[in-house]
Here is the input.
Amino acid sequence: MKIGRFLSDVYWVFWREIKRLFLQKSRIVMAVVQPVVWLVLMGNSMAGLTRNPIAARMLGTGDYLSFMVPGVMIMTTLFGGVFGGTSVLWDRRLGFLNKMLTAPIYRAAIPLGKLLALMVQSWFQVIVIVVVALSLGVHFATGVPGVLFMLLLASLFGVIMGGISLGLSSMLKSIEALHAIMNFLTLPLMFTSNAMFPTQAMPAWLRQIAHINPLSYAVAPMRTVATRGWIWQDLWVGLVVLALLAAASTAFAVRQFHRSIA
Here is the structure.
């Protein structure tokens, strides 16, 4: 494999996805509106929770909005990632996928380019959430370096979900089937995690599920840098787990793409 040519193939697949994103104005508008709705409506409706000292101790902060911001970041990344495979099915339906497969490009460049585009999309969404959160008075304890660390964690989580979605899309033949499977995964992942509520408030059986939920491993370190600071003993586990899962998910997408379409 020639590395230069391979990277060039990845870039052109990535660039096509980015151009298509910016041609879909409604996607960009929804990427902005959705986190604003979550933060303004749910963040403010639950703001009174921290008046209870027990609830405030569970949240680890006196401001529910600060507690909620990392959860909203990961939720938007989750939704962007799980539907990332839709582009493969649209390309197949329109016949463009066959053109890419018959073109002299590396097959692995197709899922990798699409994953890279999903990462950039997640950066855009996280930055929008940071701006909205700052305008609502949220203070990030670690400043700009902490926000960059949160971008890294959101990117790794986006790759995990995007890799699974792309891998499945290489096997499935319809967009409806992919949406059904990913919808089935999305809500359980969200509501069995620490995204919206602290795990200490959950029943024991649900807490055990939350502890193995990859979404919790993304939210917990993001929340630590946002509300408490650089407490590395609370950060490194999430970082390592997300990096390993992202590598496994990427390998799954590339492998399934070769096996199912080649």
The two ends are 17 Å apart (CA to CA). The chain has twelve helices and no strands. The chain has a mean pLDDT of 85.
